[in-house]
Design brief:
- The chain is of the alpha+beta class.
- Helix content is 30%, strand content 20%.
- A five-stranded mixed beta sheet has the order 2-11-7-9-5. The chain has a four-stranded antiparallel beta sheet with strand order 15-23-19-21. Strands 16-18-17-22 form a four-stranded mixed beta sheet, with no helix packed on it.
- The chain is elongated and about 75 Å long.
- The model has no long low-confidence stretch (mean pLDDT 91).
């Protein structure tokens, strides 16, 4: 048994060397079409069309024609495409992309209608030999196959691979159809589990978004649409300036910024998540002297003052700082540190109030700048909001804190599955 022709991880009872052929010898190229998105619709038609974009956006390696949403060709006639219809087991490549996803492929599964492929950047193939369902789709998305494409890519900003070069790549597969089946089913089950976890995460994200709208009063109302049990009465209209102050960050000297990781981390708007919240990445490391009153503490509440995105995705939004062992977080410029002037406003309640759509809309509309948007402490403090009694504030903060814990757990579970898939994509193919 040749080690180079066998995967590192293998199902029991299989020990034969894998077969290999060039893609050009193993596949027949299929006809392509030059239809654009303008020729398609999602409502009705006789023929469905798989486009370049349908390949790049799909995480899974198999396109399930029963469940994936594929558009129709507007006014498409069967007689015009009858020799081009796809079959189960056909594969489609995206031959260009702005990153190394060029060469991403999907396998067609569960064909229940008339499907064709179109687009200048798609290449469709049909295997000349019968392979087990799901095997090809996952093999073609493995590192074992994709590393062959790296030396064949052309271009600088936009990468591409030609049909001629694609034909030179080597396809490897077990001689045993049973082994092919077990590999294909294993990855297909992983993809289905990932899809279910993504759906669950999306549902929780949508629930939080809906509750942020319904558990805070609408403009002109003194009570929210949805209220926690045991609370009643009107909320009091007030400005944030009646409860809090906001301190600007320090302009740390760029001469002491470090490309080498240190324990001193300057926070930037890049550490804020879209919608609000903290992310421990994109730190700027620092190795200079630090003013003591610009060292941040666990559970400090900060807001962003600057945003570079077109939609001002994080402008004015909050983050509560976690404890990051071995790191000291520094209060950098372009961030505001919130302090509480009295005991009338709960920090948890304020954290989620600053994530509401009405607050963010106010901040964006009052922002200055074109390419770079800016807000200020005064503008944030001038925000007019409705505030309930302190006990209800705490209860609302706890409700959303539990939702966020659920979101973090679901994100971790999803990432674990994706990491597992990536690990086995490297170890179960050659």
């Amino acid at each position: 048994m040749e080690k180079s022709k066998c995967p590192e991880v293998r199902f029991k009872h299989f020990n034969e060397s894998w077969n290999q052929q060039t893609l050009g010898d193993m596949f027949l190229p299929l006809s392509n079409n030059t239809l654009s998105r303008a020729d398609l619709n999602y409502d009705n038609g006789q023929i469905k069309n798989i486009h370049y974009g349908d390949i790049l956006v799909k995480y899974a390696a198999v396109l399930d024609c029963r469940n994936d949403k594929i558009p129709f060709i507007t006014d498409g006639e069967i007689s015009d495409f009858k020799n081009q219809f796809l079959q189960n087991g056909d594969v489609i490549f995206a031959d260009t992309a702005e990153d190394k996803t060029v060469g991403k492929a999907i396998e067609i599964s569960a064909v229940d209608d008339n499907y064709i492929v179109s687009g200048l950047h798609t290449m469709a193939y049909r295997p000349k030999i019968k392979l087990s369902p799901y095997y090809l789709g996952h093999y073609l998305n493995s590192n074992a196959y994709h590393h062959q494409l790296l030396s064949l890519m052309q271009g600088i900003k936009v990468l591409s691979v030609s049909r001629t070069n694609l034909a030179k790549t080597i396809i490897k597969y077990p001689s045993s159809v049973t082994e092919q089946t077990q590999i294909g089913n294993y990855f297909q089950n992983l993809d289905q589990s990932i899809a279910l976890h993504e759906k669950k995460l999306s549902q929780t994200q949508n629930l939080k978004k809906a509750m942020l709208e319904k558990m805070f009063p609408n403009v002109g109302s003194t009570q929210p649409e949805i209220r926690l049990k045991g609370f009643n009465g009107d909320w009091v209209n007030s400005q944030l300036s009646n409860f809090i102050s906001i301190k600007h960050g320090f302009a740390f000297d760029g001469a002491y910024f470090s490309e080498i990781e240190t324990n001193l981390c300057l926070l930037t708007p890049g550490n804020f998540m879209i919608g609000g919240g903290f992310k421990a990445e994109k730190f700027i490391y620092y190795n200079g002297e630090v003013p003591e009153n610009y060292i941040l503490q666990e559970n400090d509440l900060l807001v962003t003052m600057t945003d570079l995105s077109k939609e001002s995705d994080t402008l004015g939004l909050p983050a509560l700082l976690p404890l990051i062992r071995g790191k000291t977080l520094l209060h950098n410029q372009r961030l505001g540190l919130i302090s509480f002037d009295n005991d009338e406003l709960d920090k948890g309640f304020l954290f989620y109030l600053l994530q509401t759509e009405s607050y963010h809309k106010y901040i964006v509309l009052s922002a200055t700048g074109t390419t770079v948007k800016h807000t200020s402490p005064n503008k944030i403090l001038a925000f007019v909001c409705d505030v309930p009694e302190f006990e209800e504030q705490k209860a609302i903060g706890q409700f959303f804190k539990q939702l966020d814990k659920t979101l973090v757990l679901q994100q971790q579970q999803l990432q674990t599955l994706k990491n597992l898939k990536q690990a086995f994509l490297e170890k179960m193919f050659v």
